[in-house]
Amino acid sequence: MALTTLARSGRLVAQNQSLRYVSTKSGPSTGRKVMYSLLGTAGFGAAGVLYALENSVSAMELVAHAPKYQWPHGDWIESFDARSIRRGYEVFKQVCAACHSLKYIAYRNLVGVSHTEEEAKAEAAEVMVTDGPDESGEMFQRPGKLSDLFQPPYPNEEAARHANNGAYPPDLSLITNARHGKEDYLFALLTGYCDPPAGVTISEGQAYNPYFPGGAIGMPQMLYDEVIEYSDGTPATASQLAKDVSCFLKWATEPEHDQRQRIFWRIFPVISVLFVATWVVKRSKWSSLKTRKIVFTPKKYD
Ligand code: HEC
After folding, report:
1. DSSP designation for 148
2. Are strands 19-23 and 292-296 parallel, antiparallel or unpaired?
3. CA–CA separation, 291 and 286 (whole Å)
4. Which of 152, 108, 159, 157 has the alpha carbon at shortest distance from 129?
5. Distance between CA atoms of 273 and 279, rounded to whole angstroms?
6. pTM of structure
7. What is d(CA 68, CA 191) in angstroms, rounded to the nearest whole number?
8. Transmembrane segments in this chain: where (predicted)?
9. Is ligand 1 within 6 A of the CB of residue 178?
10. Which of 35, 118, 137, 290 is spaced 20 to 30 Å from 270 by Cα?
11. Closest Cα partner for 292 from 12, 19, 16, 69?
């Protein structure tokens, strides 16, 4: 065994004439096979336990799982629906921004996605931003610029909780990736408000939503038919509003989504050809090495 390992270097083979190559291929030893099967069983077992735990925990929480919806943006080929993002921005600005911040998105991010540069500048100029200090050391207010981030509705978490019965409206920049079910969950949550089932009591200032873990949510139903008017004339039904704001927030979570897909499809053909070529070359280079068998015939002393 030790000699076989040594002989792989080739040097020893040249020195010792009694070593020769026999081209056969042998599988792993029995010990290894047992080890591999044990590892495999343990791996599958652990995955099974994790899966069971994940599901039993969700089942205990009595939470409704969001169905899968057909989004205009897919995971592999489809790009974002720019018009939907534009409408979603209107919903966010006129409804959600009253309570939720979107702190990782700046007005310049809208340019070329849902708005032209002029439009985005006009949107930014509508909000007042604290800047400074000026020459006298004072902070001052000025109209927003393209480089400004979206302004939060509350100065800090305490103020936000105080205004919402103690519940904290989370920042929505990364929300679609931060929740199980992603944008499906968001849509289901926004459209899922209903009366609590018999036996469930909801305290003052809370609403019932079966998609929210626990059922009692501190955010009242926000989206009703015609709660805002779309500038492009699309009928503003509650589900349309929810879908558009979900598309907008999905974009806010992954603004690089379209570019990532485009780059992937550009490099995919090249990578596949290179992968196959590498595989073929590797097989041919290693074939003599992998299929050889080294036999050691001890010298006979008589
Ligand atoms: C009146 C204030 C208010 C408005 C307006 C509002 N929300 Fe909320 N939202 C809240 C509060 C408060 C919470 C925290 C609820 C809780 O933790 O019980 C919340 C929580 C959420 C959550 C997180 C739920 C979770 O799984 O933790 C999402 C997503 C959300 N809101 C989306 C929206 C969207 C989208 C809009 C606009 C259509 C919106 N909200 C408008 C107050 C608001």
Report:
1. P
2. antiparallel
3. 8
4. 152
5. 10
6. 0.79
7. 14
8. 34-53, 263-281
9. no
10. 290
11. 19
By alpha-carbon position, which residue is closest to atom 3 of ligand 1?
99
Region label for 62, one of left (φ > 0), alpha (ψ between -120 and 50) or beta (otherwise): left
pLDDT at 10 over 60: no
Query: Ligand 1 mean position to 190 CA, how many Å?
Result: 9
- Identify which of 91, 100, 185, 249 to mutate to test ligand 1's pocket (most ligand atoms within 8 A of the CB): 100
**DSSP assignment letter at 263:** H
* Model confidence pLDDT, tens digit, residues 64-73: 999 999 999 9
Q: Is 194 annotated as a binding residue?
A: no
- In 3D space, the residue among 194, 227, 225 whose CA is nearest the CA of residue 92 turns out to be 227
CA pair distance 295, 201, nearest whole angstrom: 80
Helices 82-94 and 238-253, axial angle in degrees (round to 10):
100
Domains in the chain: boundaries: 2-57+260-296, 62-105+149-255
216, 208 Cβ separation under 8 angstroms: yes
Span from the CA of 123 to the centroid of ligand 1 (angstroms): 23
Give the phi and the psi of residue 272 in degrees, each rounded to 5: -65, -45
Reduced to 3 states (helix: H, G, I; strand: E, B; else coil), residue 74 is coil
Cα(168) to ligand 1 centroid in Å equals: 8
> Which CATH architecture does the domain made up of 62-105+149-255 adopt?
Orthogonal Bundle (1.10)
Report the C-alpha gap between 178 and 104 in whole angstroms: 14
CB 5 within 8 A of CB 294: no
3-state helix, strand, coil in the chain (%, to 5): 45, 10, 45
User: Which of 145, 103, 141 is closest to 121 using CA atoms?
Assistant: 145
Amino acid sitting at position 128: M
Contact 96, 241 (CB under 8 A): no
